[in-house]
């Protein structure tokens, strides 16, 4: 209860129509703030109206506010990591798909200023807020657009812009988790017949729909979470139709500053105390890296040797001391075999380690991302047996953001 309002007055006010209580929405930016957004997408894909496959996609977005300007603007740097659920033996693991970097400026009402070369974020100028107080049931509209990466799908080299008009409704407060938040809906429809674009094929017509509910954290001046259902249809120049249907949800988390030096020192001490051989720790831009050198698998496979599980059990105990940090598991090989074979083997071995950590309940599957690098990042000379042994490694990174 606010100071200065009596119990009787508070009771009286609670009986008044809810529309008397107004909410104003705007972004706030503070230089140095870091946060991460974890989004999970479940979608079904149809080709020529026939079901093709399902996909589960994890988007992990690390954001830092580089500067806060006059008038409530904020300059942001973000890294977008996209991963897809692995199949086969690694079906419980999200494997790295693509990574994007982006810089943009956002004003207090949500409008972005961003260079045309950036692919991310996909949905832009959503949400955009009006410069007025809102009561439950109030509506507003604003133009926005989606920006897609069609390099692999259609051979279109530049980010591909799809415009729309979004319609908003303030819903009042709604519960999510253990809290209640001011919430609003966002709905837009797409009907776009773009000009032809040089490439193998291109979209002749794009139809789509998105319906979202956004939960707003007024104290932080940004979204706390959102839920979405979507449908996108691409009618292509080669006569095919590709359709995506699904739903998505996201949570936004503030990131605590990571004392990399202290954590690295602690882990190094644990490695020494526990007698974990062929294991080292170092500080990297992404966080703190634990490198398991010469980790042993069955020959030419991703099946962990039983002797290695004891080592990983000790590493699991160390990782459990830092439960708030997500994990990235990277696989590396020595320079042997073909490039494609090395890449596949490194990825599969990283999956094997990640799955073992999940079985040990170190992290849930949506908090681990797996990458394979083959022999692209050697740490020693591949011309010597000792160098090859060091390069044949799995690295586990406690991520800063």
The main pleated sheet reads as: 17 strands, mixed
- The structural domain count equals 2
User: Could you estimate the helical fraction of the residues in percent?
Assistant: 10-25%
Which descriptor suits the 3D outline? globular
Which strand-content bin applies to the residues? 35-45%
Q: Mean pLDDT across all residues, rounded? A: 87
| CATH architecture identity of the largest domain | Roll
Show unreliable segments: 1-20
Report, as a whole number of angstroms, the end-to-end distance: 36 Å
Number of helices: 6
Looking at the structure, the CATH topology of the largest domain is: Lipovitellin-phosvitin complex, beta-sheet shell regions
Helix/strand structural class: alpha+beta
Task: Characterise this structure.
There is one protein chain. By secondary structure, this protein is of the alpha+beta class. Helix content is 17%, strand content 44%. The protein has a 17-stranded mixed beta sheet that branches. Strand 4 and strand 5 form a beta hairpin. The two termini are 36 Å apart. Mean pLDDT is 87; it is low at 1-20.
What is the secondary structure topology, with strand pairs?
Blueprint: H1 7-14, E1 34-47, E2 50-68, E3 74-85, E4 94-106, E5 112-114, E6 123-124, E7 139-148, H2 151-154, E8 160-176, E9 179-192, E10 203-217, E11 222-236, E12 241-254, H3 260-274, E13 279-283, E14 287-293, H4 306-319, E15 327-331, H5 339-359, E16 368-372, H6 385-391, E17 393-399
Parallel strand pairs: 4-16, 15-16
Antiparallel strand pairs: 1-2, 1-12, 2-3, 3-4, 4-5, 6-7, 7-8, 8-9, 9-10, 10-11, 11-12, 13-14, 14-17, 15-17
